[in-house]
Structures are given as structure tokens and as C-alpha cells.
Amino acid sequence: MRDWMKLAGISPDEITDKAVFEKRRQLMRASVAAGVGGFIGGGVTSASAAPLSGDIIKTDWTTDEEHTSFDAATSYNNFYELGTAKEDPKRHARRLKTEPWSVRVEGACEKPGTYTLEDILKPHAIEERVYRLRCVEAWSMVIPWNGFALADLLKRFEPTSAAKYVAFETVVQDDLPGVRRNVLDWPYREGLRIDEAMHPLSFMAIGMYGEHMPNQNGAPIRLVVPWKYGYKSIKSVVTIRFQEETPETSWNLSQPSEYGFFSNVNPDRSHPRWSQAKERRLAGDSGGLSALFTPKIDTRFMNGYAEEVAGLYAGMDLQKFH
Ligand code: MTE
User: Fold this and answer.
1) Contact 106, 247 (CB under 8 A)
2) Cβ atoms 137, 84 nearer than 8 A
3) Which of 44, 76, 78, 271 best tests ligand 1's pocket when mutated (most atoms within 8 Å of CB)?
4) Ligand 1 within 6 A of CB of 135
């Protein structure tokens, strides 16, 4: 049994239970810093939960909204490398190999190179950020992520003035079911303008709900950009490239008229095939997945983060630059 479980008097088979999660949160709040070293060597090789060790810093980046349950957030996923059905990523999670892991840093920066996951994580204290995640498919979740500001990571590589954008790529493992079927042009690619990437809301997550990142959610390290549609939040990152040109992005390459580079959540700009004015939230944690969806709720401009990020787009026509 893991240490925190002993401390909290929890048995392993209770692990996804909400009461346990609440207990664990209290425990995390009370826990004494074990140092960030406790996070190193992370990465979950199976789909099961594995708690992060060490202290997790609470932040003001939170919300009063009900959290999506751990079970729902790890059972209803988009991770096309593992298959296109919502249940495929969990079903095939074990097939994603996350050890060893390294991230290649390239392009317009003073410190390019191949960094092991340990190198990447070493200097960073781990925070909790409770963010809304709004998928372009008009469903949403509320997830407590664990990780650190993307800006803090990027600054370590000393981007030069030519770094106008940051491109990201996901690992390509040929034996993954979605990769074999060429559903998209791999690697999965995403990108941000440098000011978006450096915005304090942009986050590199190595875990969620106090657990190491489950494979189906993008182990061992993924991006989370809460004011943009979920497809910008690229999973299982292996490449970070600083560049002068706008990066190619997977969904834009696949269907340019439907998916723009910016992809800011915008209830006033419909997807060509559906309205973006409302969404269904995965909330609660009982019953089957379809029972977890709330009735439709209003989608908020920039997913409710406009106060923080709207300034990044001052003067831009958001119907055109979508
Ligand atoms: N990253 C990769 N590599 N492959 C994907 O298919 N899907 C995206 C994004 N990141 C995707 C990805 C989409 S469409 C969404 S909505 C979110 O991941 C879903 O994240 P979640 O499954 O953790 O909720």
C-alpha cells in the first residue's frame, strides 16, 4: 500500500472514489514538502492511478464549479493515436510506452538539446490548477491538473528574438492502434504564438487529481491551454520547437476550413457543422458516462478566461483569426 494511503487509512480498491479523492486533497494540503525530487521519474506505464508524491501547491487558478470525476476524465478521451472512439484511449492506454521519455528542444533558442523527463521536471515545483477544458465537440470537463507554468519551462531554453511561435509534437509509436490506421498525419502537431505560450495560464501537466498523468490523458507530460479548444492541449509531448513561422497544426492540416490556428473558445463563432454557443459538461461521478453529462450550459467566451487573455488578441478579427 502506498504511504499516503496508509496515512489516510485508504485501501487501494477505493482509489477512484470521490470521498477518497477529497481525503487525498486534504492530505495534500496538509502534507509537508517532500521536495520536487519526489516527482522525478514519473510517468505511468499502465492505465491505473499512481499518486504523485511530494507537496502540491494550491494556486488561485481554480473554480467553484463541480469537478468532473477522475473516472469520467480518464474514461472519455480524445487521443487519436490510441483510437478514435471515446473509450479507446483508456482501453489501449497500456500500449503507450512512457519510459524512458525525453523531450527534444529545437530551433530559435540558446539551449537546444534532448532533455530527459527528469531534466525537464527537476527545477519545477508542482502546482494544482483547476481548469475548464472545452472540447471543440461541445462537451467540457473541470479538471484539477498538476504541473507547472509552460513559461517557466520555455524560459529555461532561452528563446531568441526569432522565436515568434512554439511548435509541439506528440510521440509517434508505430504499434499504437490509431497510428497504424493513419487517422491523422502523424505526429500530432500543435502550436502557440510565443505570447500565448508565455501567458501564465498556459500549463505543462504531469498529473491530474494528484495522480501521475494517466496514459490516456497524455502521459508523461502534456500541454493544457484552457481558453482554447481542447485539441490545442497536445498530449505526450516529445518535441518543442521555437520558430519564426506559424506552426502547422494537425487539425488545421486535416480540415483547414474547420480548425484555425488560434482555436480560442468562442460561442459566437460556429463550427461549420455545429453551433459553439452551448456545451454539455461531464460532472458528478455516478452512473454511466452518458448519465454524467449535464443538460446544455452556455459556453463562455475564451472558456471564461477572457479577463486574463483577451488582451492577447486586441484588434484582431476573431471571426477571421479563429
Ligand atoms: N493530443 C494528441 N496527441 N492526440 C489527440 O488526439 N486530442 C485533443 C487533445 N490532445 C489529442 C491530443 C483533443 S481533441 C482534446 S479535446 C483533448 O486532448 C482531450 O484531452 P482529455 O482526453 O485529457 O480530456
Assistant:
1) no
2) no
3) 78
4) yes
Distance CA 160, CA 77 (A): 36
Which has the closest alpha carbon to 253: 159, 156, 191, 184?
A: 184
**Do the Cβ atoms of 21 and 181 come closer than 8 Å?**
no
Mean of pLDDT over the chain: 86
Nearest to 303 by CA among 209, 229, 218, 216: 229
Please give, one letter per residue, the 3-state secondary structure of 143-190: EEEEEEEHHHHHHHCCECCCCCEEEEEECCCCCCHHHHCCCCCCCCEE
pLDDT in tens, 94-131: 999 999 999 999 999 999 999 999 999 999 999 999 99
Ligand 1: residue whose CA is nearest its atom 24: 77
Q: Which of 233, 253, 282, 299, when mutated, tests ligand 1's pocket best, judged by the most ligand atoms within 8 Å of its CB?
A: 233
Distances 119 to 101, 164, 200, 202 between C-alpha atoms, Å = 10, 25, 21, 20
Ligand 1 proximity of 186 Cβ (cutoff 6 Å): no
pLDDT number for residue 28: 42
pLDDT tens by residue, 245-258: 999 999 999 999 99
List Cβ neighbours of 3 (8 Å cut-off, separation of 6 or more): 53
Is residue 179 within 8 A of residue 186, CB to CB? The reply is yes
List, in order of start, the domains of the chain with CATH numbers.
18-311 (3.90.420.10)
Query: Residue 280's pLDDT is what?
Result: 93
Ligand 1 mean position to 42 CA, how many Å? 20
pLDDT of residue 284: 65
Pair type for strands 113-116 and 127-134:
unpaired
CA–centroid distance, residue 7 to ligand 1 (Å): 34
Place of cell 509534437: 169
H or E segment to which residue 243 belongs:
strand 237-243
Tracing cell 502557440 back to the chain, one arrives at: 192
CA of 266 to the centre of ligand 1 (A): 19
- Judged against a pLDDT cut of 90, whether residue 38 lies above it is answered with no
Q: How many residues does the chain have?
A: 322
